[in-house]
Specification:
- With 73 residues, the protein is mostly helical.
- The protein is 81% helix and 0% strand.
- The protein starts with a helix and ends with a helix.
Length: 73
Amino acid sequence: MQRSTMHVVKSNPLLKSYLKVNSSWYKMLNRDGNSIKEMEKEARRYFKLTFPDKIEKFSNQMNMISMFMDVLK
């Protein structure tokens, strides 16, 4: 793996933990260090850190609060 790619992975805890879970990316990064952006997108999808996931999580929390408020009435 290229030093620059290795530095990016080690400095980003999200990528580091995703690489532990999905080790097939070692091979891809060894072949093409520029695929780090693709790996970052996949890691965000895996850990549900994309914008639609955050909106869904917020919506679920609002529904939960609404249900609690209805129970308290």
